[in-house]
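Journal club prep — side note

Before the paper discussion, L.F. wants everyone to see what a predicted structure for a comparable chain looks like in token form. Sequence:
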Amino acid sequence: KRQPQPTGEHAGAPSRRPAPLVARVPWTPIVLTLLVMLLAAGGLRPVRDAATLADVSQAYLAKPVGYVALGPVSAVFDTVLLLSVRQHVALLVGLMVLFVAYRVLRHLWRGSTTRAHLLSLAVFAGVFVLTYAGAILLPRPMAYLATQDPRIMVVDFHSHTSASGDARRGFSVEDNRDWHRRAGYDVAVITDHATVTGAERGLANNTASGLDEPMVVQGIEVTWTGEHVSVLGAQRTYTGMLTENLRDIDPDALRLVSVVASREPVVIWHHPRDLNRLPPATGPSTAGIRAVEIANGSPDNMDDLKPRRAQILAFAQRHDFMLTTGSDNHGWGYTAPAWTLMRPPVWRGLSSDDLALGIERVVREAGLRGSRTVERTVPYPSSIAGLAVTVLSVPFTMIRVLSPDERVMWLVWIWAVWGIARWATHRRARS
């Protein structure tokens, strides 16, 4: 005989048991919450001394309300822009390994189809590309360096405008100035390649230093025996010391313009590769390097500087050279990697030229003690093994440097995203 069919709301619905309790627990947000909270116990300062990696008492990293409200977005975007080329490659490889391991385990546990694997791979690639594109292109609030001593002047000794051929098109000197204002700088040294057009435009719009907007100081980036250097005021105070195309230093002309004591050109060595290649200035009326860069924001230059940090510091100590930092900003991204702290006798309210001469004087006379270099706290591997675990060390450090209010926003974001995803899943199931 034919069995009676169920009627009503249960008609056609197969009976199923409720999922076990362990499957209903929201493990993902719980694990992330515990991770954010537990890593607070081993928290790190978000900025440190770029030369010694010690804590810095003169300054701190301040974050506007918009930056904090964006929570994980701000932290991830900043971290992406603070990694070197080697770290970017290691991060991608590590993420691919984790992705493949996850798909294999999921296939063994629940089974999966080729179409599902390919779709998951497309989502993974899309998220990765969009994350990098967002970090580079999307305007957003910036974390900035703040000081409690009004006598401290915060300088970026290495930045660019669209006048440089390798900078973002449309990145004007005023865009550069605004970027530096948002990042906490008082002075932006424009060191475009083989031109001072952008710097001169910025000088024309300078107001009194230290008041409303960062002051623009003229410099120029050139090469000297294959190394990159910049010269402060090269085409404003010291004309004629470069080759005709403004791409290289003329050694004979440099020696000639250096004979006047206390007015020798200030040549700063950017991301040095061979510390024996360029001559150091040995005192008054001598030509040569007078400062050296120890932190740089360009991903490829990080791989030159960070592994040789101790050598560069020893070089500066041996010759009593001032240490500098450079964002090397070419118009991409909204993350400041490093700052140079100086304390000239007087700097607020000076004209453009007087401010530039004052900076040069500190570099010549104060040497190593004339600055304190500060950088964002990001791990850098000292070995192949350290590079291999970049996929773990970088996010762990990113979470350890969070401030208490940022941690609260991270928890809000974690549970909000989980709640939205849960709601979307139930809606699809009902439909």
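L.F.'s comment for the group: DSSP finds 15 helices and twelve strands in the chain. Keep this in mind when we get to the figures.
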